[in-house]
Amino acid sequence: MQAVKRAAKRAVATAAAASLAVLTVLVLDTAPAEAVRPPGIPSLSTVQSELNQLTVRNEANGDSYDRDLFPHWSSVGGGCTARQYVLKRDGQNVVTGSDCQPDSGRWQSDFDNTWTTTVSNATVDHVVALSEAWASGASQWTTAEREDFANDVSSPQLWIATTSINSAKGDKDPAEWMPPNTSVRCDYVKAWTHVKYLYGLSVNSAEKTAIHSHLNTYC
């Protein structure tokens, strides 16, 4: 009789374990995938070296900035604009039409750790804002150079961001704004510094001091 009871208990335990395993699989399958950050974010040591090479200079020519001076969302090949390319590259289960425009999918705004399935809410942010670039040296560039900057899908310049967090960031530098999601702050300041280095843009003194502090704190 005791043997029968033990066998019954084992059967119940086995069934419970199997049910838990199935539930675990279902939970994992439905959980969002980890966010995909843009390419080219360098190591801490590389960024520290790049930061030390940046020219420190006050921003200038801000009053003459016009967003149209940076032709953006240009074609980057394959029938896709830079924005469409990034949404497809960094999204999850993205379905696009023949024009490469995403029709559905899910995207993580890493700055505020928010997922969205609304295409119009998945904006693409220039980590170094166009107006920030203009005041940091891009006012001296050709239009073609500014277009390359505004559509750079190879560096960590373009990030997916919800409309609200994109608006909150605006054209602020790391001395003025940092992502509320602290887990992305290290990569954020590394990306910011690297983009400025790649394009020979300057930093002001408060910006450089803040970057140093953020690298020490979050990396």
Automatic annotation (TrEMBL):
Superkingdom to which the source organism belongs: Bacteria
Domain GmrSD restriction endonucleases C-terminal: 108-211
GO molecular function: endonuclease activity
Signal peptide bounds: 1-35
Signal is among the record's keywords: yes
UniProt keyword annotation of Hydrolase present: yes
Keywords annotated in UniProt: Endonuclease, Hydrolase, Nuclease, Signal
Pfam families assigned to the protein according to its UniProt record, in alphabetical order: GmrSD_C
InterPro entries, per database record: GmrSD_C (IPR011089)
Descriptive protein name: HNH endonuclease
Source organism of the structure: Glycomyces niveus
